Amino acid sequence: MEIEEAIKRAKANDQKAFNFLLDTYWDAVYGFQLKRIQNENDAEDITIQTFSRAFDRIETFDDKYKFKTWLITISKNIHIDLMRKEKHSISQIISNDDKSVYQILDESPSPEDELITEQHLAKLLRDIKKLKPHYQEVINLRYFQELSYKEISFQLKEPMNNVKVKLLRAKKLLAEIIQKN
């Protein structure tokens, strides 16, 4: 899939296009933040927030600019906002209206979902324990406790779009661990 096509499909709420864009640009945005703040957890949190905000507002993206530049700008603005608030916890960022979050919801299983489902439960649990704790938690809430995104959002006290991006990232990382084994 080409970037331009993925953006066009994402604007039409195609979940695979969102996955493609996340996979393509995760390292660039995360690397940018890691160099800026030199803290892996905070860089990861800001990157998750960047993608959730970008996906929430994908229809505002102007094709005259590069998508990567747009993402980096969003990421930089989130970091600046955090510094202005002088709060120690990134989880306290207030989300925008949750109605538009439903635009990226697609309940059909992704390739990562299918791979995860095929694994033996005991082995799967061992692989899940290799993830960072916040990824373990979101996987547990979604797949073992079978909570909706809204319920997970409420329980974690995080905006729903952050939960969605965090779950996307957790599934991708878990699928990579499973494939290595």
Automatic annotation (TrEMBL):
<dbReference type="InterPro" id="IPR013325">
    <property type="entry name" value="RNA_pol_sigma_r2"/>
</dbReference>
<comment type="similarity">
    <text>Belongs to the sigma-70 factor family. ECF subfamily.</text>
</comment>
<dbReference type="InterPro" id="IPR013324">
    <property type="entry name" value="RNA_pol_sigma_r3/r4-like"/>
</dbReference>
<keyword id="KW-0731">Sigma factor</keyword>
<protein>
    <submittedName>
        <fullName>Sigma-70 family RNA polymerase sigma factor</fullName>
    </submittedName>
</protein>
<dbReference type="InterPro" id="IPR007627">
    <property type="entry name" value="RNA_pol_sigma70_r2"/>
</dbReference>
<keyword id="KW-0805">Transcription regulation</keyword>
<keyword id="KW-0804">Transcription</keyword>
<feature type="domain" description="RNA polymerase sigma-70 region 2">
    <location>
        <begin position="23"/>
        <end position="87"/>
    </location>
</feature>
<dbReference type="InterPro" id="IPR013249">
    <property type="entry name" value="RNA_pol_sigma70_r4_t2"/>
</dbReference>
<dbReference type="InterPro" id="IPR039425">
    <property type="entry name" value="RNA_pol_sigma-70-like"/>
</dbReference>
<dbReference type="Pfam" id="PF04542">
    <property type="entry name" value="Sigma70_r2"/>
</dbReference>
<feature type="domain" description="RNA polymerase sigma factor 70 region 4 type 2">
    <location>
        <begin position="125"/>
        <end position="174"/>
    </location>
</feature>
<dbReference type="Pfam" id="PF08281">
    <property type="entry name" value="Sigma70_r4_2"/>
</dbReference>
<dbReference type="InterPro" id="IPR036388">
    <property type="entry name" value="WH-like_DNA-bd_sf"/>
</dbReference>
<dbReference type="InterPro" id="IPR014284">
    <property type="entry name" value="RNA_pol_sigma-70_dom"/>
</dbReference>
